[in-house]
Write a structure and sequence with these properties.
It is built from ten helices and no strands. The chain has 302 residues and is mainly alpha-helical. It is globular and about 60 Å long. The longest helix has 46 residues.
């Protein structure tokens, strides 16, 4: 029988306590690299589609650049998930694991392309929905500015992507534990593993965010409803500081919650002799020590 949420939460708390500093550094590195990738590849695409004289070749090139940016981000996400998963398993961890997907690009690119396709579908569906509500959307932009419109598009597309990809949350851990598996099989296996467990996973991840998540969301809504002004600049600076501290704390806990849940559920499947998952390798959820033969990125532990 799978561990209770209380037991899983204890495992999460201990893992976060041991690795909070390194997890924060990893999150910052991932965020910076993600921003750089989207800026370098996404900005030219935006310039192409917003130019006065746009051609069919410009649209194709913009689509290629957007797909390339998304694919690189998802390759980076693979390494970032492995980075957090190794915390849970008490294995050697260095910042270099965040970039390990680029080393294994032949295996990872097909899965990254599938995730990119899912992201593009989410964006297209969002744009279609806003087209149907174009009058209300244009009125909102006139009242609150273009940034509000961009935020709505981005937020809606992100939420839709999360909903579409929830069943595939375990693709990256599966591909790490099963080096021989193909991308399509990893997606199918993730869907099988999470059949009937998606709601449980979402509840556990949200619960992992805890008070920090509640505070971060509350402060965000407060900043939206009451925009900063010059007279209360210092107060808003303090509120922003509290917001970011709690946001990063919640993100760290929620990101590590995924591998905690994955390892516990896979362990339960093995004990129950389930035929859904056969890793064909030593138990990946037990603590391991690093040996000289273990594959590591070239950069040293931080």
């Amino acid at each position: 029988m799978m561990k209770s949420d209380r037991e899983l939460m204890k495992t999460l708390d201990m893992c976060v306590l041991r690795n909070k500093g390194k997890a924060l550094i990893g999150l910052i590195v991932f965020a910076v690299c993600e921003t750089l990738l989207t800026s370098v590849l996404g900005a030219p695409a935006l310039l192409l589609v917003t130019s006065d004289t746009i051609s069919a070749s410009d649209i194709v090139l913009a689509a290629v650049l957007i797909f390339a940016a998304l694919t690189c981000v998802f390759i980076l996400a693979y390494g970032f998930i492995i980075f957090n998963m190794r915390f849970v398993r008490r294995q050697f961890v260095s910042i270099g694991f965040i970039f390990i997907g680029f080393r294994e690009y032949k295996r990872i690119i097909p899965a990254a392309l599938l995730f990119s396709l899912c992201a593009v579908i989410s964006l297209v569906l969002t744009e279609f929905g806003l087209y149907l509500l174009r009058n209300q959307f244009q009125a909102l932009i006139k009242e609150h500015g273009l940034s509000a419109g961009v935020g709505i598009i981005g937020g809606s597309a992100l939420l839709l992507f999360i909903l579409l990809s929830l069943k595939f949350s375990f693709v990256w851990p599966i591909m790490w534990d099963m080096p021989f598996i193909h991308a399509g099989s990893a997606f199918l296996l993730s869907a099988k593993i999470l059949k009937g467990q998606v709601t449980h996973l979402v509840k556990f991840v949200i619960k992992a965010g805890g008070k920090s998540l509640i505070i971060a969301v509350s402060f965000f809504l407060f900043s939206v409803l009451i925009p900063p002004n010059s007279s209360g600049g210092f107060v808003f600076f303090i509120l922003d500081f509290i917001y970011f501290v709690n946001l990063y704390t919640a993100l760290i806990r929620m990101l590590i919650a995924f591998p905690v849940f994955f390892d516990a559920y896979v362990q339960d499947l093995k004990k129950s002799d389930s035929h859904i998952l056969e890793l064909g390798a030593p138990d990946s959820t037990t603590d391991t020590t690093t040996t000289d033969d273990e594959e590591k990125p070239d950069d040293s532990d931080t």
